[in-house]
Structures are given as C-alpha cells and as structure tokens.
Amino acid sequence: MGAQNPSGGDAASSPPVVSESVLRKVLLSYFYVSVWIFLSFTVIVFNKYILDPKMYNWPFPISLTMVHMGFCSSLAFVLVRVFRLVDLPSSPSMTPSLYFKSVVPIGALYSLSLWFSNSAYIYLSVSFIQMLKALMPVAVYSTGIIFKKDDYKRSTMLNMLSISLGVAVAAYGEARFDMWGVTLQLAAVAAEATRLVLIQILLTSKGISLNPITSLYYVAPCCLAFLTVPWCAVELPRLRAMASFQPDLLTFGTNSLCAFALNLAVFLLVGKTSALTMNVAGVVKDWLLIAFSWSVIKDTVTPINLFGYGIAFLGVAYYNHVKLQGLKAKEAQGEKKPTPAKETDEEAGALLRDIDGNEREEDRANDSKA
Q1: What is the pLDDT of residues 141-158, one digit of tens each?
Q2: Within-domain flag for 348
Q3: What is the membrane topology here (predicted)?
Q4: Residue 7 falls within a domain, yes or no?
C-alpha cells in the first residue's frame, strides 16, 4: 500500500510543489510590477518631454504640477461625491482640525517635492536625475533619526555613506552637470523624505485609513492651494507674456491621466505585494530609464556616471537585502502577523507617496507600531 499523506490520499497523488493559486499570485505580482514600471516610466519621460526646452518646450513646472493636481482633485471628487464609488474614512473621521494638523503639512511637502522634481527636468538629463534619486533611502533614514522614528546604527549609516559616495562619483562624471538643477533635485528628495516620515507621525500612527482615491481627494486640493502662491509670483507673469500659446489638450490631458493612473498603480503594487517589492522594481525602472535616456533621448552617459551609480546601486541592493533578511528573521521567530487594521494603516501611508522614489514606508511603520 502506498504511503499516505496527512489528508489521507496517496503520496503519489499529492499536489505539485507549486500550486495553481501560488502560481497565480506570482503572475499577478509580476503584472502589478510591470504596470507600475510602465506607468512610472511613462510619466517621467512624458514630463521630461513637456518641460525640456529642446522638446515640447513648455518650461513651466509649477503649472504642469497644478494641472496634475487639478485633474486628480476633480476626478477624485467626482468618484467620491457624485458617483459615490468610494467611501470616506469614518473611524477616525477626517475632521477639519485633523485635516489641518495632519493632511495640510503632508500636502505642503508633497507640493514642494513635485515642484522641485519637475523643475529639475529642465536642467538635468533623465539618467542623471534617476542617479540622484538613489539618495532617497539616505534622506529618509537621516530624517527618521532627526524625528526620532529611526535608531542610529553604525552599519546602516555606513551603508548610507556608500550610497552617497556612489551618487557623488556619478555627479562628478556628469557631462551636463548643472548646479541649480542638482539643487532642485536634492531639495525634492529632502521634501519627499520629510513627507514620508510625517506620514508615519501624522497619519499612520493615528490609524487613518485612506485608499488611493480618498488620498487624492484630501491631498491633491491641498497641493493645488500651496502651488498657487509660487505660481502667481513666478510663472503667471511669464504665461501672460505668451498670450499666443494654445495648450495642447490632448498632450496635457493624456499626461494628467497617466499621473492619476500612476497613483492607483502605487497603491496596487504596495497593497498587493510589499514595499520591498516596490524598492526592487524601482531599481529595475531606474536602469531602464538610464538605458532609454542614453539610447533614445541621446543623453550623454559617461563611464564615470555608470561606475558611480553602480556603487550607489550596490548600496541600495544591500539595504534591500538587509531589510529582506530582517523580515525573514521576524517570520522565523514566529512574530504575529499585523492585524487587518494595522495592514490598512500601513497601506494608507504608502498611498501618499511620490511617483518615482525608493520608498520603504511599510516596514518602518511596522517597527514604529510594534
């Protein structure tokens, strides 16, 4: 008689090692990653095309960001208030006091991050911007220490220094180095890192649960309001001087739709996989953008560029490896899984992120609430 498995059947008739449900989950994960990479890639290249003086030649980054925020605000309002396809959070409810204390600071930083990041496309190549964005883990970790949301660890700091060194070498080898463009991109990284930390302090820790639509419903109008001030002072006079300019509704409408779709894709990727998966996918996207920038846009990518970014890439890869090993260690110790409410709170933090950083909010939120 053949050996029996625990369910009572023959061992020969036991299911394969990789079940159909597991295979389906793996394929779905690859699908989510592919969608996010495609949309992120599209938005970055699309923004570069619109803002670059050598391409579409519409160098108004604040206006472009306001178009995005206005489109997202309007579409989110219609989905929430008109069609009522999405329910607003009820526990805790978004009171005016909570909105001004929690959402407004995050919206202000988000507007600065988008403004500075889009402005950098006027002065820097796509490939070099992606290299500078490798500093995001460094900025988030440093900001976390300042706000006492992270503990100082010598090994982690050495890892951060190695990433910084790699970016510095890449900057040294940049053929189109522009100090003002670098300053704008670094300011965008700093604003984004501060925003990610404040999400933990002001939203996640209070149990505020937002889905992708409601996050845009609350945050996008706030961003639009903050951007109005610099827009009136910086770009409105220049736009008035261009009275003959007629905006291409197809170009700007498609660009805004891609930006809205990317917000949904971020939630889909992090909510259905993990923040770590998004980090790894972000590295793949960065290399694809560098290759595209060199081969299609014809940006100059020097060997020193690649050598420096290679150092930064290894630093980021090692950081992701350490995080993965930490997660495996927790599972091995039999640590309890987060409750559904906790998982929802962690996803809420991920919803408010920028379109192309190396974010790691989820795991840090876990540690701060453990």
Answers
A1: 999 999 988 888 899 899
A2: yes
A3: Multi-pass membrane protein
A4: no
